[in-house]
Amino acid sequence: MRRSRPLSVSGARRGAALVEAALVVLVFLVTLIGVFDLGQIFFIHQTFVERVRNAARYAVVNTYDETAFKNMVLHNQPTAPEGRTSGIFGLTPAMVSVSQFDSGTSEHRVVVAINNYPYRFFSPLIAGVFTGRSITLSLPSEQP
């Protein structure tokens, strides 16, 4: 009959190091995926802000054409490319709104907005699709 030997001190240390390493790797991976999620949020939001700015600038120097202004947000050009129904990061024309206020007066304004655009998170803890905050820009315009 063999007797089992108690673990030596060095064997117990190796086991503790393995458990500690597993915990550190887990925390590191959760933090890394969280950084990717935040980076994605900032990148998409800033891209949408820039698209709204470009569309508003285009709107104030051209005659009012809601479709062309929406296409500036969706595709960064006044006409939609052949066969494309959605824009950058899955934007649809329903998510983009363009309006004008006080037409024919010195207070004429063009307002371009993106509403209800989706974010998809990578983190397993908060995985899913969430709706971003509205992005709205209003610029004064002179009627030709």
Helix percentage range: 40-55%
**Overall mean confidence score, pLDDT:** 86
Overall SS class = alpha+beta
Hey, roughly how much beta strand do the residues contain? 15-25%
How many structural domains? 1
Unreliable spans: none
Number of helices: 2
Major β-sheet annotation: 3 strands, antiparallel
Task: Describe the protein in words.
This protein is an alpha+beta fold and 144 residues long. The protein is 44% helix and 18% strand. It has one domain. The strands form two sheets. Strands 1-2-5 form a three-stranded antiparallel sheet. The chain is rod-shaped.
Properties at a glance:
144 residues, alpha+beta, three-stranded antiparallel β-sheet, two-stranded antiparallel ribbon, 44% helix
Please outline the helices and strands.
Layout: H1 9-61, H2 66-75, E1 96-101, E2 109-114, E3 118-121, E4 128-131, E5 135-140
Antiparallel strand pairs: 1-2, 2-5, 3-4
Concise account of the structure shown:
With 144 residues, this protein is α+β, with helices and mostly antiparallel strands.
